[in-house]
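Box 3.1 A note on notation
Throughout this textbook, protein chains are presented in two layers. The first layer is the amino acid sequence; the second is a C-alpha cell string describing backbone geometry. Keep the layers aligned when reading.
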Amino acid sequence: MSETTTAAEAAAPHRYTAALAADIEARWQDFWDENGTYEAPNPSGDLAGDPELVNRPKKFVMDMFPYPSGAGLHVGHPLGYIATDVFARFQRMTGHNVLHTLGFDAFGLPAEQYAVQTGTHPRVSTEANIVNMKAQLRRLGLGHDQRRSVETIDPAYYRWTQWIFLQIFNSWYDTEARKARPIDELVAQFEAGERETPDGRAWADLSALERANVLGEYRLAYASDAPVNWCPGLGTVLANEEVTAEGRSERGNFPVFKSKLRQWNMRITAYADRLLEDLDGLDWPEAIKLQQRNWIGRSEGARVDFPVGDGQHITVFTTRQDTLFGATYMVLAPEHDLVSGEDSIVPDAWPEGTHDVWTGGYATPAEAVAAYRKQAASKSDVERQAEAKDKTGVFTGVYATNPVSGEQVPVFIADYVLMGYGTGAIMAVPAHDSRDFAFARAFELPMRCVVEPSDDRGTDPSTWDDAFSSYDAKIVNSSSDAISLDGLSVAEAKTRITQWLGVQGIGEGTVNFRLRDWLFSRQRYWGEPFPIVYDEDGVAHALPESMLPLELPEVEDYSPRTFDPDDADTSPETPLSRNEEWVNVDLDLGDGRGVRRYRRETNTMPNWAGSCWYELRYLDPNNAEKLVDPANEQYWMGLREGQPHGGVDLYVGGAEHAVLHLLYARLWTKVLHDLGHIASREPFHKLYNQGMIQAFVYRDKRGIAVPAAEVEERDGKFYYQGEKVSRVLGKMGKSLKNAVTPDEICQEYGADTLRLYEMAMGPLDVSRPWDTRAVVGQYRLLQRLWRNVVDEATGEVTVVDTEPDEDTLRVLHKTIDGVRQDMAGLRFNTAIAKITELNNHLTKSGGRVPRSVAEKLVLLVAPLAPHIGEELWRKLGHTETVVYADFPEADPAYVVDETVTCVVQIKGKVKARLEVSPSISDADLEAAALAEPAVVTALGGAGIRKVIVRAPKLVNIVPA
C-alpha cells in the first residue's frame, strides 16, 4: 500500500470502499436471514403468515432451475437471477406479496459422469456443489425465501415427481371431452361394453396381459418398442432434442443411431391442439411461441390406405390428397414396421423384370433392405432430409395399389422419409414435389402431371427441370371409373377426394402433427427411479402411494455400460439392473393378490422430470399430504384477469429451452389440471428470455484457448507470453479460460457494484460483452451516492432538513416517473442511467442534499443495490427494513415540463417557435400563433383558409 493511499484513507476513513462494502453486505445478509425478511406468507398451511401481506396483490417471480456445477458460477450465470431479484424487490416496494426463491435441478448426466471418473457418489458431489453455489448466490444479496428452496434429488421432492408420473400413467386422454381422465373410467367403459376391445371380445375374456396391452394404447405414460436415438458411446438413449444436426450426441459428441428399444413415453401428442391453442393466452416472446408452433407442426390433410400384400396396407398421411392420381411410387422410412419383424412385406426374391437400379446390387430384397437400413441408422434426421444431397433408396420388392387409379406402384425405402412425421410412409407424386422428383429421376420412375402448370412448361414432366407445385391451379389427368377430379381447383379436389375416401372406407380427412411422443426413459443411474414394477407376465404395475418415494439404491458402478461409439448393433445395460436385490422384490401392492415377486423398472426418468413441476412445489414445499394445497396454488398461480390460464407472473431464463423444458412443463400442468389437482392451466404466464454475458476468447496459433486474464494488448494486437493470439467474442466458461467469478468482482468492488454493472450493461434481453475495466463506473456511482448522504471523514449523515429547489424537484420526480416505468418493464439499464443523472445533479449542487430527496434516491437505488440501500436507509433514521418501504411516486406537476416548444408552420414551412404551457388549449394556442409577429409578417395580409392545431407542439396555417 502506498503512502498516498494510506493518507487518503486516513483523511476519509468512512469512504465507501470494497472493504466497507463487504462489511455492509455481510451484515445485511445476516439480518435478512435472521429476520426472515423475504419470507412470503401463504394463505394456508405451515407457511401461512402475516395476513396483511397475504391480502396484498401477489407476484410470483421465478428463474429457470440452475444446475449445481462443480465449477461454480461465473459472472454470466447470475444475470437473470439479479434481474428477477431487482424486479421482485421493486414489486415488494410497490405493495405486493412476492414469492421469489431458487432451487436446484440436481439429477442428470454431469454428476453421474463425475461419479464414473472419480468413484464419488453423485449425491456427495452434487450436494457439495449446491453448498458452494448457495454461498455464491447469498453473497449477491438475492432476496430468496429460503424456506421454499427445493432440490430435485431430495427423496421428499422426487416422491412427488414419482406421484405425478403415476397420475399420468393412470390416465388416458378423452378426445371427446378434450381432457385427461382416470384410467379406471376407461376400464369401466370396457367392462360395461360401452367401448369395444380391438378384437371385439368381452373385457372379461381378455387375459391380464391382453388388458394391459389394450390400456397401453390409451395411457398418457406408456411403454412401447419405439424407434429411439441410441448412443453407444454414452450407453443411453437420447431425446431428439439431445441430438445435434450432425447426428451426434449433444454431450460428448458421440455418433447416434436409430434403434428400437422398449422405452417409456409421454403421450404429449394427445395435447397437441391444446398446446397450440393456449399459446395465444401467454405473454411470451413471439419467437418462442413460433418455435413451439413449428415444433408441434399442425397440418390438415387426409389418411389414405394403399393395399399391399395379403390383406395388408400402407397408410400414408398427405396434405395434397388432390394429387392422388399422380402417385407413381411409394416410399417407407427405413425404420417402418412393414420392412422388419413379423409384419414385414419384403419378399424372398425380386419380382420378374425388376429394374437393376432399384436393387442396389443385392441378390434379394431382404439383403438390400437390411443393408440400407443399417446405412440409414448412422445418419441424423437433418442429414437425411438435406435438399442438396443425392437421393438414395432401395426397392422392397413389393408393389402397392393406388386406390384411385388401381395402378400398381413400386414401394421403396429411402432415408429422406422419417418415422417421426406422419405415418413413416409417403405416396410419391414426383411431378409436384421436388424431393420426389429428384428420387424419380435417380431411379428412372414414371411421373404424371396432375396439377396444370401456370407457366409454359407443358404437362410432360420428363421435359421439366424440377417439380411444379401450386395451391392455385386446375387438376388434370385425374379420372378413373371410380372418381374424377379433372377441372376442379385444388381446394375443390381436396374436398371431393376426402369425402370419397371416407365413403370407400380407405381413408379420411385428418390432422397430423410434427410433434412426437416424449421419450421418457434414460439408461442412467442418477435420475428418478420409475415407481413401476413388472409381474411374471411382464405387466406393468404402479406402486401404491404408500411405497413412495422409491429411492435410488446403492450400486457399485454408476455408469451405464458403454460400447464402441460406432457399434450400432448394441443395446443398453443400465446401472440399476446390476443391483439384483433391488431389482427383484417381493411386494404386496394392495391389489388383493397378496405378496408376489416383481421386477423393478431399471431405467430412470430423464433430467427434465423434476423441472416439469417445480413451480408448484415452491408454493407448498413442506406439504407431505398433497402435491400442493389448493388454496395456495389458487392464490399464487390461479386464473385471474389478464392471465386466462393462470401461471407464474414472471419466468426468466434462456431461450434454448423453447421446445424442451417449456413444452414438457406445459404438458404436466395440463394433465394435473385435467385431473383436478391444480387450478392453473399453464405453468408460466409471462416468459422473459435474458441475453447472455459474453467474453473475449483468446487462442494461440494451435487454436487452443489461453488465459484471458494473462493476455496483453499492444497497439491493437494481443499477446500471451510474448506470442501473438487471436481474439473473438464468445461464451464465458472455464474451458475457454475466460471465466470471471462473481467472487472476484465482489472482493474488489462489492456485490452491489456487480449487481449494478450487470443490470447497466445493456437491455436485459440482449447479449453483451463483459469488460472488467468498466465495472469501476458503477463502483463510482455508489461512492458518489454514499458521499451525498455520509461524510467520509466523520461518518455522519450530511443531509439537511430543507426543502429542495424547484430544479431539483423536477429532476427528482422525472427520475421517479421514469424509473418506475423502467422497473416494471425490466429496463434496468435505463433505470440506472436515470438514477445516475439524479445522483450527479445532487453531487453538482454544491450544498448538502435535502433529506426528502436523499430518502427518495435511496429508495430508487434499493432494489438494484440492496445492501447500500439498507445501510443508508438506516443511517437516515429509519428502523424498519427498506425491503418493504414504499417505492417513491412521482408528482405529476413536476414531471410535466414547465413549457414546451410549439412549431408554427405556414404551408408546411417553419415560420416561428413559441414557448407555451404543456396544458394550453387548442384555441389559445391558435390565437397565440396568429398573433406572433413573425407569422403576421409571413402571411403578409393573406387570408387564412384553415388552421390545424396539435396542441401543445404544432400549429399549421394554410393561407387562402
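The domain at 298-513 is CATH 3.90.740.10 (Isoleucyl-tRNA Synthetase; domain 2). The chain has a mean pLDDT of 93.
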